[in-house]
What does this fold into?
Amino acid sequence: MAEKYNNKIIRDDNNLGKIEGREIGTEMQESYLDYAMSVIISRALPDIRDGLKPVHRRILYAMWNMGLKSGGKFRKSATVVGETLGKYHPHGDSAVYDTLARMAQTFSLRYPLINGQGNWGSVDGDSPAAMRYTECKLSALSEELLFDLDKETVNFNPNYDNTQKEPTVLPAKLPNLLINGTMGIAVGMATNIPPHNLREVCDGISYLMDHPECTIEDLMQFVKGPDFPTGGLIFDVNAIKQAYTTGKGGIVMRAKTDIVEVKEGQYQIIINEIPYQVNKSMLLEKIAFLIKEKKIEGIRDLRDESDKEGIRVAVDLKKDAFPQKVLNQLFKHTQLQETFYVNVLALVDGIQPRILNLKTVLEEYIKHRQIVIRRRTEYDLRLAKDRAHILKGLKIAVENIDEIIKLIKKSKDKEEAKLGLMKKFKLSDRQALAILEIKLQQLVNLERIKIEQELKEKLALIKDLEDILSKPKRILEIIRKELSDLSVKYGDDRKTKIVANAIDEFRQEDLIPKEGCIIIITKDGYIKRLPPDTFKQQGRGGKGVIGFTTKEEDTVEHFFSTNTHSDLLFFTNKGKVFQLKAFEVPQASRVGRGQALVNFLQVGQEEKVSAILPISDLKDAKYLVMATKYGVIKKVEIDAFSNVRRSGLIAIKLKDEDLLEWVRTTSGDDEIILSSILGQAIRFKEKDVRSMGRTASGVRGMRLKKGDTIVGMDVVGKTKGKASNPKVLLITENGFGKQTLLKLYRLQGRGGSGIKTVKVTAKTGKVVNAFLVDEQNLPEEIMGDLIIISRFGQVIRLPLKSVSVLGRVTQGVRLMRFKEANDKVASLTLV
It folds into this structure.
């Protein structure tokens, strides 16, 4: 029998009961929405409060109830899986075991929640051993998520068959969502949250509690970026900031690699750490495939030398390979460089999926902990009041023990005795029962004192707990104290290094190894680049080797050390400045002449490079100080040279026939020392020279005698002359040199004639160069290596310590002898 009601066909079926007809579209839509919400809330997305999905929470809760604490014994993983399936999570055992295994993997979680014993898989993609072989227990850190469960801090719901209760969320002392991260795919949405460093997150939460109005940028002072368990490097602070601000963004990860020289001319790339969630064996297969297909050239052998101590992959290179170029090709074509796509999606209040920024995540955690601590305090207060109530009754009993004993003896049963006590001493039902159950041994004097002491403690505790509940600030203080303790107990240093700059498409310098080099420029404008080990160390007074083949009458004029990635500022004697990359200078052989500088810089015919300054030296500087041949000095703010055009800029306006010769960086509070070819020197404060515009002419730095010119200018930094012991190193054109303590040069006013710095004679010749050396501030790898080059290209390398430390008016000692009778010293440098 069928009837129509509200346009629905309803009929009775003897077997199925009442059947209601529905449109298929409506039924599919509602059923799919129910399924989607079930996946979102009950399976795929983490709760923002404890950072766990239901399956993780159920596994940890099952182990907690089983007593698998961090200090106890291990139990078979199969036992835990069975307990979880039977009581809380009625799904497949493989799903539960895979989840349990991931919580025990040190390469998956930054702070593992389960302490495992046995084979739990590897970064090569190996699966864990079967659950009947592995054993597990809670880690000490995961217990911090479960503490206070018994104090009614969170709500409990019935399990799937209504035979057990399970927590809807854990109390979570730790901000687990951020420190361990998570990933999950729901219906129409997904989450991918990277792990972070515990100390940084705890510091960020504490700062947020003190400064509720702070910005994401403020919080990033503490939470600097993701911290992956596999280490590696991440790039671009701006990309991290975008991810923290919007909840979405891509962060570039790179493997940690080193280029090492195993023997002369033979290099090897060592991979020590790989990006997060990269399968190492698949990575090696990819590299091998690219080598076979000749998409990456220069690799001779590939070996996996990893062991229990950590990852180590050795990539042996061919002799003619360019190590940095090969490495950049590996970054470009393999998972040695990968992008982590952040999507901070989590459940707020257990039901609402939201994309969250860093501040909101921390705020929700603080809100959760406030609720937990309030509920815990209320629970403790209730117990304390109950116990205090009983203790008050016991105190009355011991104070009136004789009367109570008489009353009890006269009573015919327990009920009558209870009612008698309640009536006579105005006790509650529970107090009277407690008195009736008191043991005779508690009537001794010592027990009486204990009751009074305990009551006093409970009353003090009640007062303290009530004060906590009445003052929200005290709850925040408790959160801060707990986080501080946890940070000290479980915190560690970052594993992932953050590189501030972004990685763009590979530029030319990305294919050039960053290494030390020597730049040589001749008087006629020829330039070349050499590796620093071209010149071997020799003893003082030797003849050295040929370092340059020059044209007839050409001589070496500039000689300095830098690295291949440095930007170089070239200042000309006409007062202009140009910019060039060090690797753009062609590398030549030791005896090669190099190439003409006009091929790289737009200098005029009568214009010559007089000073060269690596931009890497400008990072901590405020000013550039320039000195000319005739003693003029000028100070310009460093920002004036932040964007030097290819065609050059004006650096100083020169007068008459003066020439720009020296440029140095200063901090604004340094000292300047000028030296002349006739052996005079002056030392004065930088503040004596005011800052000027880029096109200004400058002021007098040193008054010169007829025929005298400046031969050297240097800067005395703040630390020099105090904690360190700098010296003036100078050399004369006939190969004599010496070191003189800077303290022998007194401070004078700018513009004076100075004092004698060396005894200039026909034997020594005029001063060629003079500058400061400070052994305490020199890197170990360049300590003591002095290279001198002659006008005809003869080079000697000798220890700095072999140059004698002498007084101001001495002539020095022989440092170099010449092969050619009319040869002279051209320049010198430290490398």
Remarks:
- The chain has a mean pLDDT of 86.
- Residues 514-830 form a domain with the Neuraminidase fold (CATH 2.120.10.90).
- The chain has 17 helices and 45 strands.
